[in-house]
Amino acid sequence: MSYCRQEGKDRIIFVTKEDHEIPSNAELIAEDPDDPYEEQGLILPNGDINWNCPCLGGMASGPCGSQFKEAFSCFHYSKEEVKGSECIDNFRNMQECMQRYPELYPQEEDKESSPEAESNSGSGSALLPESDSTSATSTPEATASSDSTSPTDNQTAS
Amino acid sequence: MLTCRTVWKKLAPLARASSTVCRQNVRRAGLTNGRIPAQTPAAHMSTGPTGGGGDNHLYVLLVGTVALGGGVYMYQTLKGDQKRYQARIDEIASRQQKPTTEDQATPIQSEPPAVEAADTEAVPQPEPQAAPSPEEPSPPAPDAEVVAPSETTEPPAGVDSTPASLKVPSHIPYLLIGGGTASFAAARSIRARDPGARVLIVTDEPDLPYMRPPLSKELWFSDDPSVTETLRFKQWNGKERSIYFQPGSFYITPEELNTAENGGVGVLTSKRVVHMDVRGNKVKLDDDTEISYDKCLIATGGVPRNLQVIERAGEEVMLKTTLFRKIEDFRSLDKVSRNIKSITIIGGGFLGSELACALGRRSNESGLEVIQMYPEKGNMGKVLPEYLSNWTTEKVKKEGVKIISEALVKSVICKDDKLEIQLKDGRLVKTDHIVAAVGLEPNVDLAKSAGLEVDSDFGGYRVNAELQARSNIWVAGDAACFYDIRLGRRRVEHHDHAVVSGRLAGENMTGANKPYWHQSMFWSDLGPDVGYEAIGIVDSSLPTVGVFAKATAKDTPKAATEKSGTGIRSESETEDTATSPVASSSPAPAMVEHKDDYGKGVIFYLRDKVVVGIILWNVFNRMPIARKIIKDGEEHADLNEVAKLFNIHED
């Protein structure tokens, strides 16, 4: 049975599971997907790539950032039947660059894309501390070491 | 979120295909010179001339001619460029104002594509060197130098008559003062948004940018005896990482910064900025070096506060006192705590409580006496409502900590190599070492010389909603007193805020003009039973409404991480795998206890009936809902209804 108590200015409510199963009547304001203030996901409303997406980790900003951007842009805008088939050179450049920095982009030859990569797509504002979706990038062999910081909350892009 | 996932899913197989094909082709081309590599995708392959036999000769001739032509063109361009560059240097030297790099950038950008067009490769790229093929004579290395010189006031490597004596660049487009979390986040943001950006971080610490939270949490729980050297810790998902955001290879040296082809981030360690000339857009370091900038970020963080009584107590007491903030403080405290019998932490906030718990845990093995004293009634007394603060204090005591609450320190003396802390109510505490965790003093040393406003209420540099102090100066992190559109002017000293504000500052430094909007969060774990995440203004002086469920054994950070084997969960809920429901050995059924058990729930902090802060108490992965509620800023008649949105009874 739910009950409630007041301790000075603080109110304490204990609720049972049953009570909370009744749907909430609290109203939230509808989200505006084009709100320029909001954090964006990987793809911006106008179709461009958001290079600052935390989901990319440090890929777009590291030493191989420009190669990565080219490769991914080429792929993103590719209209070929096999998407990105004309981007081989870009990916190769990127891989060559990454091989020069094994510490940043650990080369794991036989690994598939890390599962974390996919589970971390479109994360929110703050940077992810652990090996995040950067590992999904580029070659499956290269699981990029993650970039910085904090735990973040799951800010959905839309 | 889903878009990203599908994109990655598509990307990976292609990359896989491309890389294996690439490698195969490279190998084949090397061995079978002139044969068409099998399975070449329809698109152009840079490796391997096509056809064989007679075509080969023609091809080689063609390539040779083109390369020669390209070489000639390039030589001429280089010469002309140097002339232009020299003229520009003279101009800059005579000018008072900062040079804009934009007009310098364009001539550079236009050259390499022109050079590239001469190659048969014809892959359009801004960087001249990006795609040399093994078969083709690639443009010689000096290409890189073409890009570099116009960006910097330093003489180009090829033609200097005087050797480049400057170790540090005398001009940098993006200067970041301070080498902490906010600074690193800004650097990353700038690099992501401004291709080829050159960013210089100047820090007075000897270390590269690192994250602070593990210094008072995870690093203490590591089993590795060399943890003070490696500074590696286990995350919630079991994977290890270093506290450094990036290893050294991520950065380039300040010397290379202005000549690097694609720019980069350089870190200048152990140097302090002592003077800032806003009118001249330049700063002066403690070794008298001057650096001019186009855009500057001040992310100087702060310095731990000390108790006046300790400061006045003399050298002996100061030697036995630790002010905890940096890596060196962690190392020295770790060392000290192993060699003493009793340690006292003064301060009942985040840092003090976390350190107390961390040391308290050690006390089980080592017999170290851990005392925590503070003026409030309970741990986190300024953050949590009283009932929760009391509950938390009990938990902290269970971690092996001796709590002395409502303690005001009157004096501290050193006697017989022990410290004696005299409290105002007469109590005397004898201990071997003190850790003072009594707050942070924001570092506003540059305010005077720069003419920047300092906030009298919150401390720190006063900036607007876009984190801007003055025209080309932004401030982020602990040192920024900013205008939060939703919650009003504030200054936040949390890790996630440093990341969020650093990122935002970086975006605004590259032209975004976005205000602080995405609310940052913070978290704390105090032992295996108490873990919470919070967002917004969480001040215990505000009226609160707490909605709790009856706790089961599953609802603890310990349970949430048991699967991964880590003891403490210090990350937030984004990590999907972390919150997979743990089948605990014997789930205690939800039961009504005689004593209130605040196992898990949501606490709302109200200001004028509007929710301005939320704590998620042992409830994880719900931060987006909390953020949404604060963003809406609505008056809700029944907060229990709002609490339903969090589904607190579920995992």
Task: Compile the SSE list and pairings.
The complex is a heterodimer of chains A (158) and B (651).
Chain A lengths: L2 E5 L2 E6 L1 H5 L43 H13 L10 H12 L15 H5 L39
Antiparallel strand pairs in A: 1-2
Helix pairs in contact in A: 2-3
Chain B lengths: L1 H30 L22 H41 L7 H17 L23 H6 L23 E7 L3 H13 L4 E5 L10 H4 L10 H4 L1 E3 L5 E3 L21 E5 L4 E5 L4 E4 L4 E9 L3 E3 L3 H4 L3 H5 L1 E3 L3 H13 L2 E5 L3 H17 L2 E5 L12 H13 L2 E4 L4 E7 L2 E6 L4 E4 L1 E4 L3 E3 L4 H4 L10 E2 L5 E3 L2 E3 L4 E5 L3 E3 L4 H15 L11 E6 L3 E7 L7 E6 L7 H6 L37 E8 L2 E8 L5 H10 L6 H6 L7
Parallel strand pairs in B: 1-2, 1-8, 2-5, 8-21, 10-17, 11-12, 11-17, 12-13, 19-22
Antiparallel strand pairs in B: 3-4, 6-7, 7-8, 9-18, 14-15, 15-16, 20-21, 22-23, 24-25, 25-28, 26-27, 27-28
Helix pairs in contact in B: 2-3, 5-14
Please characterize this protein's 3D structure:
By secondary structure, chain A is an alpha+beta fold. Helices cover 22% and strands 7% of the residues of chain A. Chain B contains 17 helices and 28 strands. In chain B, the strands form seven sheets. In chain B, strands 1, 2, 5, 6, 7, 8, 20 and 21 form an eight-stranded mixed beta sheet that branches. A five-stranded parallel beta sheet of chain B has the order 10-17-11-12-13. Chain B has a five-stranded antiparallel beta sheet with strand order 24-25-28-27-26. The two termini of chain B are 22 Å apart. Mean pLDDT of chain B is 79; it is low at 29-52, 97-165 and 563-594. The interface between A and B is large, with 101 and 119 residues.
